[in-house]
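lol forgot to send this yesterday, sorry. struct tokens for the thing we talked abt
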């Protein structure tokens, strides 16, 4: 059966649905599923919070007997293996659906092509690749962790009219207006983790949580690149570590110093004291070279972190850009002028690295957002 505008319309709705739980389904992807019979949606679902149950089983349960002979629209190939739940392909077969339309084939070797094979062997018609580009965009974090063994990295920068991202010694400087800041809150809410360097953590003393009404429970894990464990115990991050997780990435040399006594006993004792105090406050200390993102990112992926937002500051942004480990750039440009003492932005709209495509422009009040993405 050839793909029709009817199919694309329902798949577009399934993709929109899949975005509802972005950043909230743990290691599982946020998948959307619609069950459609005679042009009417009789069941719909998105992967549940924490990753289970899957979208297909929920949508089928809602459709009930109406699923027999219906078409299922799924943003990701239904799973074919027994994990903590039975395979979704088996559920689709058991409910008697006649056709399954898929946007993206799952790269997970336990699934890839096997789900489609199970369905076809059961006599179900399968069409894959419908709105695939849009589907891959909605599944970007999951696909990156599966195929590259690291999180999908978004770099967010707010740049003044004179090319600055802040002012030396001034702490947090409001560059964008309230509309743009609200949009950033929404971005945080659909991201697994947010990362800053120790310079930003000390100078700005940020919370890095989601404070938009109704989304406060969706704050991401907060990560600080902190080679010498300099994060103050009085910082907002440390004071709230028991409410929203904080990971401090210390240098491996610091770990060696602790375990082998360091150059002097005083050095080792001081480092151990800092580590113990941070951990006592609820902060997790991880020893992994903070300035080698090619090592750090796979380590984060093993913790189930599929998406990472890099928010500050200039040195940290350059670190990820120069390593070629940024997948998406969100560049906010504001009419504010910082002037003398400004901190220069690591990039602007005229020097976006090669390999990125401009994917859109939006206005939030007087602030302009340009988004650039690298192909998956």
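and heres what i got for the seq, position by position
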């Amino acid at each position: 059966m050839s793909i029709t505008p009817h199919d694309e319309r329902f798949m577009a709705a399934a993709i929109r649905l899949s975005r509802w739980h972005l950043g909230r389904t743990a290691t599982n992807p946020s998948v959307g599923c619609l069950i459609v019979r005679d042009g009417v949606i009789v069941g719909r679902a998105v992967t549940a919070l924490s990753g289970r149950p899957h979208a297909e089983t929920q949508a089928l349960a809602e459709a009930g007997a109406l699923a027999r002979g219906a078409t299922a629209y799924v943003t990701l190939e239904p799973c074919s293996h027994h994990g903590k739940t039975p395979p979704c392909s088996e559920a689709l077969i058991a409910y008697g659906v006649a056709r399954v339309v898929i946007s993206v084939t799952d790269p997970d070797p336990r699934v890839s092509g096997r789900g489609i094979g199970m369905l076809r062997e059961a006599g179900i018609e399968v069409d894959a690749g419908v709105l695939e580009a849009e589907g891959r965009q909605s599944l970007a974090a999951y696909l990156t962790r599966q195929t590259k063994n690291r999180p999908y990295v978004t770099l967010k920068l707010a740049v003044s009219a004179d090319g600055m991202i802040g002012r030396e010694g001034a702490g947090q400087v409001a560059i964008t207006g309230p509309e743009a800041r609200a949009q950033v809150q929404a971005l945080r809410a659909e991201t697994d983790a947010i990362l800053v360097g120790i310079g930003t953590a000390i100078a700005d003393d940020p919370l890095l949580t989601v404070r938009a009404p109704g989304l406060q429970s969706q704050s991401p894990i907060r990560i600080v690149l902190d080679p010498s464990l300099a994060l103050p115990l009085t910082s907002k991050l440390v004071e709230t570590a028991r409410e929203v997780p904080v990971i401090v990435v210390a240098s491996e040399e610091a770990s060696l110093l602790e375990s082998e006594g360091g150059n002097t006993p005083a050095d080792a004792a001081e480092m151990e004291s800092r580590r113990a105090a941070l951990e006592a406050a609820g902060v997790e200390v991880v020893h992994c070279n903070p300035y080698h993102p090619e090592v750090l990112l796979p380590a984060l992926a093993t913790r189930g972190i599929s998406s990472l937002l890099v928010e500050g500051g200039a040195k940290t942004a350059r670190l990820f850009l120069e390593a070629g480990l940024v997948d998406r750039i969100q560049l906010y440009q504001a009419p504010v002028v910082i002037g003398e003492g400004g901190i220069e932005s690591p990039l602007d709209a005229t020097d976006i690295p090669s390999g990125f495509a401009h994917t859109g422009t939006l206005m939030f009040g007087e602030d302009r957002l340009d988004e650039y993405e690298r192909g998956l």
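Residues 257-264 have pLDDT under 50 and may be disordered. anyway ping me if u want another try
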